[in-house]
Design goal:
about 325 residues, alpha+beta, Phosphorylase Kinase, domain 1, Aminoglycoside 3'-phosphotransferase, Chain: A, domain 2, 2 domains, five-stranded antiparallel β-sheet, two-stranded antiparallel ribbon
């Protein structure tokens, strides 16, 4: 969530004429994140988040917006998109595809406990189960093909030891077959800063714009790598046990998932090393751009090449 394309209050006010959300009171850019332009919008009738999509093809966007609407209808705390007076979710503002969504209450917790991780595990399982009934299909935008192509683009930017690590993991992924694993709609980016807490409960899960159809286990691995990792890169025992047990209580893991778990943890680490390294070495111009440290996930990949805790039976 950065600001690449500025929006004025006057332009927003004109755009909102086609919505039934009242008049603009305040507009504030959001600095966090790296992909789209995002703003907090306050009107006379409520609080919203405005997103301008910078790199996604317009044809891809209905998948994300209707997924969020689908999950919201199933009672999950996600940012429901707001339809305009023509009953359309997707509009155009400042020359960019744009959407307005409900702003959720709460704030992120960056030092989670085992109890936090248990609730996140249950939330992720609920999202996966609700997503099985979602009829639209779109590939995970950061799938194996993207990872291989991004690795090729980055290889010459990296020192020799990092190139060796990258080549080793890309070769391992070429041998990896996840076709026997359960697939469905995944969030693919449920990091700590994308979960809002209202007291002890989850008040919202945000930022669905990396969602797609992929192995559910990939989503579990992405989430575990962020929520359950200690300072040394290894899993915190209490947090990973709480997370996996809570998830499995609602959606038990299959034998194939247990067999592929170590490989999927490495794949999840690679995905974020590559995206952060691309933002660092191959940046885009922006007014407010947050580039996250790629070394964190490079080091995590190295740790995940060692021993990893098993999935619960």
């Amino acid at each position: 969530m950065s600001v690449f394309t500025p929006v004025t209050v006057e332009a927003l006010a004109g755009w909102l004429d086609n919505y039934a959300v009242g008049r603009v009171v305040a507009l504030q850019g959001i600095a966090e994140g790296v992909q789209n332009s995002n703003f907090f919008v306050t009107t006379t009738l409520g609080r919203y988040v405005l997103t301008l999509f910078e790199t996604m093809d317009r044809s891809e966007l209905p998948y994300y917006l209707h997924l969020m609407a689908h999950l919201a209808r199933h009672g999950l705390p996600v940012p429901a998109p707001i339809a305009d007076r023509d009953n359309e979710y997707l509009g155009t503002l400042a020359g960019r595809p744009a959407v307005l969504v409900a702003r959720l209450s709460g704030k992120s917790v960056m030092a989670p406990t085992a109890d936090h991780c248990a609730r996140v595990g249950a939330m992720l399982a609920g999202l996966h189960l609700a997503g099985l009934g979602y009829g639209r299909r779109q590939h995970n935008p950061r799938n194996a093909e993207w990872r291989a192509a991004t690795a090729d683009a980055l290889r010459e930017c990296l020192p020799a030891d990092e190139r060796a690590l990258l080549d080793q993991q890309i070769a391992a992924e070429a041998r990896f077959d996840d076709s026997e694993l359960p697939h469905g709609a995944i969030h693919a980016d449920m990091f700590r800063d994308n979960v809002l807490w209202d007291g002890e409960f989850i008040g919202g899960v945000i930022d669905f714009y990396f969602a797609g159809h992929d192995a559910l286990l990939f989503d579990v691995a992405v989430t575990a790598n962020d929520w359950c990792t200690a300072a040394d890169g290894r899993f915190d025992g209490a947090r990973i046990d709480a997370f996996l047990s809570a998830y499995a209580a609602d959606r038990p893991f299959t034998d194939q998932e247990r067999a592929h778990w170590p490989s999927m943890l490495r794949t999840a680490a690679l995905r974020f090393w590559l995206s952060r390294a691309a933002d660092y070495h191959l940046p885009r111009d922006g007014e407010m751009v947050l580039v996250k440290d790629p070394d964190e996930y490079r080091d995590l990949l190295r740790v995940r090449c060692g021993e990893n805790p098993p999935l619960p039976a």
